Amino acid sequence: MSLLTTLHAARRGITVASEGINIVGHNTANATTDGYSRRDMTVTTMYPLYRNGAWLGQGPNRASFTRSADSFVDQNMISTAGSQQYSKEAFDVLRMIESKLSDSTPGSMIESYREFTESMRNLTNEPDDPNLRDLVVVYANRFTNSINEAAEFAVDIKDSLRTDMETTMSHLNDKLSTVANLNKRILATGGSISAGDLQDQRDLVIRELAEVTGVTVRFSPDGQANVYMDGHVLVQNENYREMEYYEDSNGDPQIAVRTDAGRITVTDELQGRFGGRLNAYEKVDEMLSSLNDWATQFVSDFNTIHQAGFDEGGNTGLDFFTVNSISPASSITVDAGILADSSTIAVAGALNAVTGFPDAGDRDVLDLLIALEDSATYGSTGVYTARQELTNIYTSIAVQVREAQDNYDLQSMRMEDINELRASISGVNLDEEAVKLMEYQASYEAASRVISVTNMLLGQLMDIV
Amino acid sequence: MLIRSTLFSRLSYMSRENTELGSQLQDVQKQITTGKRLVRMSEEPWTVSQIHQLREETSVQSVFKDSANLATTLLSQAENGLSQSLNVMSRLKELAIQASNDTYSLEDLSNMAEEVENLKERVLNLANTEFNGRYVFSGTAYDTPPFDSTYTYAGTTTEVSVDVSTSAKAEVGFDGSDVFQGSVDVFAAIDNLLTGLNTDDSTLIRGAISDFDDVFDQMANYITRIGAETNISEDMYEVATNIEIGLSQRLSAVEDVDAAEALTRFSMLQNQYQINLQLTTKMRGMSLFERM
């Protein structure tokens, strides 16, 4: 027996207990830290000493610090985060469009179209009434303004999406570089407690990347994280490849992985904020294109008939609306002549041979203009009326918002589940930590008492000498 | 069932639930304050087309109602003008019959001629009946009086109609030349009578009597027509009103909120929200650390 061996064993007990208390402190202090994975300490017994024909225990030994994490759950959480952001972003953008179209508000596109057609029908009662004519101009103007606003809003959204992608790109590449750098440091620090902290930090950065672009990750057994975009490597151990933004020949935004050989476009596979925005971008583009087609056809049909009519001054060949072919929905407007003077609305079908002016009650052309409302020639299949085609634009946005919302709800539910699963594996349970704290405290106290007793015995031995 | 649950996952669960409840509360609140069941069209995209269609139909019917109203007013003016013209015609015929008896002196005939002159002016004024600047016997040129001081027709021969339903029209402006100068020209007939009276020409006077009978028939026909047009307008006004009510009921069924249901839902959500808030604050003390 050696009292000194006992003393050393107790000292080791104190060391291990204080390290345990440190772990409990680290865990409880980080209990609310985003992405934190609980630390555990593995303790084994020291190899015993053989003295004088007997094995002497040497106390405990802290074998390792472990980070409680399940790489499969973490990988899934990161990809789910990308899908969740995708649906959230698509929903947010489409919701903005929906509120801009604002179906029932006076002044919205559909309502002002209705007001415009109603004002024309009112004019049939007294085609020469200047007040009724003025109202037609007022509502026509309000209607074209509402189309301009909807179209310009769509264009603004497209621009802001482009700018967001372009300006975020360098920030994203910084993040990729950070992941690669952290991989390197994690490998260098081995199994120390700081390796776990670095892993937590790195995983948070990867999650941010996933939330923006929808990258996926694979963790290797040595603690390294490899990041992929649509199967293409972005980060492998300490190496990374940058992403880049460019616009294709149509001016549409594209995202690519930059390689030595050039670039690999991954736009269609993007998830996360970018993917969601691009999805919304396509929907906005479709809406804008439908609106442009609508405006072009509407102006052409309306003007063709209007040109055949006569205004109060006996003039003919007049346009009611003007539009340019580059951006019809943004440019549709009431003709300046009509805006300035409502008597130039050409509602009459003929001139009175005697007076040289149209008769007050001649509304032959007005009737044709009103009949246009029932002409089902709109839409790609040409089976909708002008109003029905506008309704189609509304319905299509409403359906897309609904889809995006349902998808967002679904992804959020998945995210909640996976968050709870992760918390059950990696989260800090305060009760558990409190119990551990009690255990380490008791162990520390007991080891201290052993040291004190051994010390007393050694003192008594020394006194004998 | 999860093996381990942490205080923080429980708290963040409560936080998410409260956010969700808060957003549901806000939606119901909006429904109650706006009276609309559908706050956003994406809530029920399949109703968008129906709502737009109903609103458009309501707008169409409201114009038909206005048109029918206008038609009734204009037609009553036209009817009034013609009824009074008939009275004048009766008086003219009466005078002509009197004058055709040879017992009147030249002075009597001259007095009669004076009255006939006045009655002619009266017919002119009645032929120029207008409502709010709109002449009912000018055809489509209803902004100009149909007859000028020379009794020449200045209107058009095209009748004016307003649309009182998708298929029905009501004629509201008539061809004055046909009404007053159709098979017999009322002013020419009166002139004949005048000449007859002034020259004591009994043939002319008797001729005028027969003309007045024709004019009378001519105008009575128009009064019948106007009556029929008025019936159409009144009927169509009723029809449009009924359709409008039906449409507004359908629209209301689609987009309006049931207030009682919404208020009950609001109270339920509010209770749930308060329970959740209490639960959240109670969770704070549930840790062994609190007892160490």
Written account of the structure:
The complex is a heterodimer of chains A (465) and B (292). Chain A is an alpha+beta fold. Chain A has eleven helices and 13 strands. In chain A, strands 5-6-7-8 form a four-stranded antiparallel β-sheet. Chain A has a three-stranded antiparallel β-sheet with strand order 9-10-11. A two-stranded antiparallel ribbon of chain A has the order 1-4. In chain A, helix 2 packs antiparallel against helix 4, helix 3 runs antiparallel to helix 4 and helix 4 packs antiparallel against helix 6 (272-308). Chain A is rod-shaped, with a radius of gyration of 38 Å. By secondary structure, chain B is mostly helical. In chain B, 69% of the residues lie in helices and 4% in strands. Chain B has seven helices and four strands, in the order H-H-H-E-E-E-E-H-H-H-H. In chain B, the strands form two sheets. In chain B, strands 1-2 form a two-stranded antiparallel ribbon. In chain B, a hairpin with a 5-residue loop joins strand 3 and strand 4. In chain B, helix 2 packs antiparallel against helix 6, helix 3 (106-127) packs antiparallel against helix 5 and helix 5 (186-199) runs antiparallel to helix 6 (202-255). The radius of gyration of chain B is 38 Å and the shape is rod-shaped.
Topology summary:
The complex is a heterodimer of chains A (465) and B (292).
Chain A lengths: L2 H27 L9 E7 L3 E3 L2 E3 L3 E8 L3 H31 L7 H15 L6 H60 L3 H21 L2 E4 L5 E5 L2 E5 L2 E2 L2 E5 L5 E7 L2 E4 L6 H37 L12 E2 L5 H4 L1 E2 L1 H5 L23 H8 L14 H41 L3 H35 L1
Helix pairs in contact in A: 1-11, 2-4, 2-5, 2-6, 2-10, 3-4, 3-9, 4-5, 4-6, 5-6, 6-9, 6-10
Chain B lengths: L6 H28 L13 H53 L5 H22 L2 E2 L2 E2 L24 E4 L5 E5 L2 H6 L4 H14 L2 H54 L3 H25 L9
Antiparallel strand pairs in B: 1-2, 3-4
Helix pairs in contact in B: 1-7, 2-3, 2-6, 3-5, 5-6
